[in-house]
Each structure stands twice: as structure tokens, then as C-alpha cells.
């Protein structure tokens, strides 16, 4: 089976997540959803909306404040061989929520991309990545991190001869 990797990039609330979730539900019976919003007052409504619309083909993993622990869990879970597709929804959000300062942002962005490349190289599953466009952020550092994540993922994907397709949701 040829690996199926698609990176969806677009503005907030344009339907990226809903589209990808439905696509994977139709094609696969065992899906792993990586939720990157940390439950707090600001994100409770979007988290609940996403949870309500996913069917029972999904296993949910919500990130912690340790990206290393998160990827250890994801890797161990994928090693069981039961998962057919992986969806990581909100790459820049993940990095921004666990970073305490500007240096952490850049460090976590590199760790995120390296771990995603590892997953792509080691597991023959369908992978979907979702992120917002850099213009979604007012903070200059977050805009820069968003661009860095996107560019580095594509550069490393190209370097390792990985077939990562981009779907740009800009309206």
C-alpha cells in the first residue's frame, strides 16, 4: 500500500477538520485523532463540537504538556498495528500551547516536524495533518513558527522522498 499523506492548510473554521474526519471515517475503521487543544474555558466549545461529530471509529488522544511523552504514546499505540489512519489537527496550536517562551516555540516546532517525519517513515498508514495559515495569528512569533512548521515539514518530506500532498483551503 502506497502511503497516503495529505497536509490541509487553511483559515480557522473553514471546514478542514470536518472534511478530513468524514473522509477518514468513510475509508477506515480504526482512526487515531490527536487533539491539540488543551481543555480550558477558551477551547471547551470547539473540543466538544469536534468530539460530538466523530463516530466510534476514532480513538482520541489529547496532548499533554510534554511533546516527548505525547509522541512516545502515539508511537507505542501505532506499534500495535490496529490503527489505519492518523489525524493530527492543529500543528501550530500544539506548539504554541506547550511553549513557555519564544525559544521553546522554535524548539518544539523542530521536535514536532521531526516526530511527524518519523511517523511517516515508520508506519504505513494514512496520515492527515491539519493546520491554520500563518495569517491566522496576530503574534509575529506564532506567524513565523507556523511558516517554519509548514516549510520544514515540506522540505524534510522532499529530502526523504516522502510524498506529502498539500491542500490549501484559502478562500
Percent helix = 40-55%
Number of helices: 6
**Shape type:** globular
Low-confidence stretches: none
Strand order of the largest sheet: 3-2-4-5-1-6
Quaternary organization: single chain
How large is the share of residues in beta strands? 15-25%
Could you describe the largest sheet, including whether it forms a barrel?
6 strands, parallel
CA radius of gyration: 15 Å
Sequence of secondary-structure elements: EHEHEHEHHEHE
- What number is the mean pLDDT? 90
Q: What is the distance, rounded to the nearest whole angstrom, between the alpha carbons of the first and last residues?
A: 33 Å
Beta strands, count = 6
Structural class: alpha/beta
Summed up, what is this model?
The protein is α/β, with parallel strands linked by helices and 171 residues long. The protein is 49% helix and 19% strand.
List keywords for this structure.
alpha/beta; 6 strands; 19% strand; globular; 171 residues; single chain; six-stranded parallel sheet
Description:
- By secondary structure, this protein is α/β, with parallel strands linked by helices.
- It contains 6 helices and 6 strands.
- The chain has helices at residues 16-27, 44-53, 67-79, 91-98, 102-122, 140-159, and strands at 5-10, 31-35, 58-62, 85-89, 126-132, 164-168.
- Strand 2, helix 2 and strand 3 form a beta-alpha-beta unit.
- Helix 3 (67-79) runs parallel beside helix 5 (102-122), helix 4 (91-98) packs across helix 6 (140-159) and helix 5 (102-122) runs parallel beside helix 6 (140-159).
- The model has no long low-confidence stretch (mean pLDDT 90).
Amino acid at each position: 500500500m502506497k502511503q497516503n499523506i495529505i497536509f490541509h492548510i487553511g483559515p480557522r473554521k473553514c471546514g478542514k477538520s470536518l472534511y478530513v474526519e468524514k473522509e477518514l471515517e468513510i475509508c477506515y475503521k480504526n482512526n487515531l485523532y490527536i487533539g491539540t487543544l488543551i481543555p480550558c474555558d477558551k477551547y471547551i466549545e470547539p473540543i466538544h463540537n469536534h468530539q460530538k461529530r466523530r463516530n466510534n471509529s476514532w480513538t482520541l488522544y489529547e496532548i499533554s504538556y510534554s511533546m516527548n511523552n505525547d509522541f512516545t504514546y502515539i508511537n507505542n499505540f501505532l506499534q500495535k498495528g490496529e490503527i489505519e489512519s492518523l489525524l493530527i489537527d492543529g500543528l501550530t496550536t500544539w506548539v504554541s500551547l506547550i511553549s513557555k517562551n519564544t525559544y521553546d516555540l522554535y524548539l518544539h516546532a523542530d521536535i514536532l516536524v521531526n516526530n511527524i517525519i518519523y511517523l511517516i517513515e515508520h508506519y504505513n498508514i494514512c496520515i492527515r495533518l491539519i493546520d491554520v495559515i500563518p495569517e491566522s495569528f496576530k503574534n509575529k512569533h506564532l506567524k513565523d513558527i507556523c511558516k517554519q512548521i509548514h516549510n520544514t515539514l515540506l522540505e524534510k518530506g522532499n529530502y526523504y522522498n516522502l510524498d506529502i500532498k498539500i491542500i490549501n483551503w484559502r478562500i
